Amino acid sequence: MSPSAISELTQKCQDIAITPAKTLHLKGHGDGEATSNGLEKSEFLLGRHLHKAFPMVTGGKGNYLYLADGRTVFDASSGAAVSCLGYGNERVIAAITDQINTGVSYLCSSFWGNSVVEELCKELINGTGGQMSRVYLTGSGSEAMEAAVKLARQYFYESDKQTPRVNFIARETSYHGNTIGALGVSGHVARRAPYEPFLMDNIHRVSACNAYRQRKNGESDESFVARKAAELEAKFQELGPETVIGFVCEPVVGAALGCVPSVPGYLKAMREVCHKHGALFILDEVMCGMGRCGTLHAWQHEEVVPDLQTLGKGLGGGYQPIAAVLISPKVVDAFMNGSGQFVHGQTYQAMPVQAAAALEVQRIQREENLMQNAKTQGEYLEKCLKSLLGDHPNVGDIRGRGLFWGLEFVKDKETKEPFDPKLGVAEKVHDTAISAPFNMTMYPGTGTVDGFAGDHIILAPTYIVTKEDIERIAKVTLEVVSKVFESPGVDS
């Protein structure tokens, strides 16, 4: 960003001062006002937080949500990086309505095929340039990862019923879903903790690819990647290469780490280790895929094609619950030349109404060239965030790709020491952001450092954002962070 552009943007935020902070302002926004500010506690829904009251949403359009208390909130996180086209898109609503009006919103996939389902699968395969071969459609990212784990195991079982391949290698501080199999693959210790006795014991781990916390002083990308590849190779040797089914990772880590992108060359090096030993290379793009990172698939940033890939969130843009597994030709061939059957199924897989919504979302993205907008506006968001918040004493790192950006908060910028988890820093930033006068969403995350400690927020706006929207997001983020991290002795 040029000096004049930085000056112009900074001028818009001239009334907001950043002062060095050594302690966190702990008085929560709206403490004790759970029912007086348009917030409601549910009496009937078993939600994620039983003691917390939430603003009630009455409608939405484009980038905005309308609340029962009269406020309009700008959604700068697309919910959980889901609502990529924003709210109330008339084309998608019409596609859903048209499909329902056929009288067929659901079909049992064991009995029937459907043309709109086939069209969606064709659209998705074409989006890979034909480098993937088939699509398994399901209802959520967790279900997609569950299916991918089974597909990977059955791939080897098809040719050898006594195959010794029983182990997966995943990464520390990772998150791949909350069903038992998907959570078992995950390495996020806090999310695993209540269910640890139930989880698979055949998941083994290597470190994540987190340059901010792991790169040595003066270490180049090439050296960093070589170190990661050597670690994966060592894990293969420890387990016995012939016992490993595959390696699982996110190209850009979402909720667990806060938009941490792989170092250039990392994915290629990991795939080479896998293929050297006949194992599968599996990518989880539930959060970072389908255009979120400026290319339709995150692996297309470096053209590192996986053997299996999970999709979700941006696939249907929140208009229907839908996710998928993309399957490479070699995996499909093993099934075609073997049993010809995937020993797995779910009631609501490949529903026509889900497919109709997702197909229209994908067509809109393609026809309106929204991947380019995600790339262009994402680059501008990076410049704005780094120019306004790069020197803030409690912002340790700003990282991401496309319209997928994370801010990691630290107690000490020099040592990168995280805040005490009991302080709830990320949640406090989020609660402040969605409150008046800021009225903007951010997606909070914890356990960034080790699965327990560490706080970050994610900014993942819709693919329809404009330059002016980006400036607003950066400005409000600055205001919110400045509000939460007040200087010593300041209390309100």
From TrEMBL:
<dbReference type="InterPro" id="IPR015421">
    <property type="entry name" value="PyrdxlP-dep_Trfase_major"/>
</dbReference>
<dbReference type="InterPro" id="IPR015424">
    <property type="entry name" value="PyrdxlP-dep_Trfase"/>
</dbReference>
<dbReference type="GO" id="GO:0005829">
    <property type="term" value="C:cytosol"/>
</dbReference>
<keyword id="KW-0032">Aminotransferase</keyword>
<protein>
    <submittedName>
        <fullName>Putative aminotransferase</fullName>
    </submittedName>
</protein>
<dbReference type="InterPro" id="IPR005814">
    <property type="entry name" value="Aminotrans_3"/>
</dbReference>
<keyword id="KW-0808">Transferase</keyword>
<keyword id="KW-0663">Pyridoxal phosphate</keyword>
<dbReference type="GO" id="GO:0030170">
    <property type="term" value="F:pyridoxal phosphate binding"/>
</dbReference>
<dbReference type="Pfam" id="PF00202">
    <property type="entry name" value="Aminotran_3"/>
</dbReference>
<dbReference type="InterPro" id="IPR015422">
    <property type="entry name" value="PyrdxlP-dep_Trfase_small"/>
</dbReference>
<dbReference type="GO" id="GO:0008483">
    <property type="term" value="F:transaminase activity"/>
</dbReference>
<comment type="similarity">
    <text>Belongs to the class-III pyridoxal-phosphate-dependent aminotransferase family.</text>
</comment>
